[in-house]
Specification:
The protein contains 7 helices and 22 strands. By secondary structure, the protein is of the alpha+beta class. The protein has a 6-stranded mixed beta sheet with strand order 15-14-1-2-3-22. It has a 6-stranded mixed beta sheet with strand order 16-17-18-19-21-20.
Length: 349
């Protein structure tokens, strides 16, 4: 069984999973976007907008062109963050707030349908046609939307509409101002189809319980993956940079200023292709959980050309399950070349 966890720290969320007593991946998510029932305080002199009060005496700006309908000081309005500013300036908010999902972003106050520019042209036309046929409005279709059956988009659209219905219901109660909904964008995407989730924060627990449906979600305010007993041996191995392989032998991970080098040590007269496959699997896991960035070079056990081709195919298949890791091929010296971009995700809009 795979156990997923969400650990809230001071300035970030750490999201990961554990399988067979090994840490499988780590995502670090910073910031969060929220929807507020805010109070319009006053019109700004020499500025086309209003000062609004949010929560805990925090203030924000609401531009006139970001309102829906007529508003005036004293009104309670639903707003979402649309522009994060520097520390000495107020963040900007919009009444055209959004609720993000995995394949779409839903805008309850809009009737437009937009498709990511990264979607191929023929797929864009198909998505627009399907949206019209299924009476889907007020959405941005994400880049990954064309890669799934449209029925999943319909299901997500209906779910996000229900989320908005709950937001509207909660906005009718006091006090005003206050936060109604916290949108952990990438957290939502990562955990959408997962079960057996352990969380150490009550607010996130309520969010997941309410918006992920019937999942096995557990609250343990003292949970930290670093003190999870099932991970004790694996965390020691990761810290040492020596990871054992199922068939014997190990990989040794050494970080330098320029790159990370991984050495594969087989055990006896084994199947070299299989040992390299095991080593690649552990290397990809190490890249994720140790947050290795930049160039990663793996010194594979020497194989013939046929096995090198099979290994390359295996790597491409494995990469479908690893975030932002790219494979650049096998050199003449038998080195496997990978790169990884930074994985800290800023989910503020």
């Amino acid at each position: 069984m795979i156990k997923h966890f969400v650990e809230k720290k001071k300035d970030e969320l750490i999201v990961g999973s554990i399988k067979d007593k090994k840490l499988q991946n780590i995502f670090k998510i910073t910031n969060s976007e929220a929807i507020f029932i805010a109070r319009i305080e006053r019109k700004m002199p020499n500025y086309s907008g209003y000062i609004i009060s949010l929560e805990n005496k925090e203030k924000g700006l609401l531009d006139e062109n970001k309102t829906t309908g007529q508003v005036k000081p004293g009104d309670a309005v639903l707003v979402g963050l649309y522009k994060k500013t520097s520390q000495d300036k107020l963040d900007k908010y919009t009444m055209d707030y959004s609720i993000p999902g995995r394949y779409i972003v839903y805008y309850p106050n809009s009737k437009k349908v937009n498709v990511s520019k990264k979607v191929p042209k023929d797929k864009r036309e198909f998505l627009l046609h399907q949206a019209k046929e299924n009476k889907i409005i007020g959405v941005d279709l994400r880049t990954n939307s064309y890669k799934v059956n449209f029925s999943k988009i319909i299901t997500e659209y209906e779910r996000l509409k229900k989320v908005n219905e709950k937001i509207l219901q909660e906005s009718k109660f006091l006090p005003v101002p206050r936060k109604l909904f916290t949108s952990y964008k990438n957290l939502f995407s990562i955990l959408e189809d997962k079960e057996n989730i352990i969380v150490n924060d009550g607010e996130i627990y309520k969010f997941l319980e309410k918006y992920l449906g019937e999942k096995k979600i557990f609250l343990d305010e003292n949970y930290s993956y670093e003190f999870d007993g099932s991970l004790e041996e694996d965390l020691v191995n990761l810290k040492r940079g020596v990871l054992p392989l199922p068939s014997g032998g190990n990989i040794i991970v050494e970080k330098t200023k320029a790159m990370t080098v991984v050495d594969i040590n087989g055990l006896g007269d084994k199947n070299f292709l299989e040992t390299n496959r095991e080593a690649v699997r552990e290397t990809l896991r190490a890249i994720d959980v140790l947050t290795l960035h930049g160039i990663v070079v793996v010194d594979a056990i020497t194989m013939n050309k046929k096995d090198e081709k099979l290994l390359a195919e295996f790597i491409e298949d494995e990469l479908k399950r690893h975030f932002k890791i790219k494979f650049h091929g096998i050199t003449k010296l038998g080195l496997l070349e990978f790169t990884k971009s930074a994985i800290t995700v800023d989910i503020s809009r």
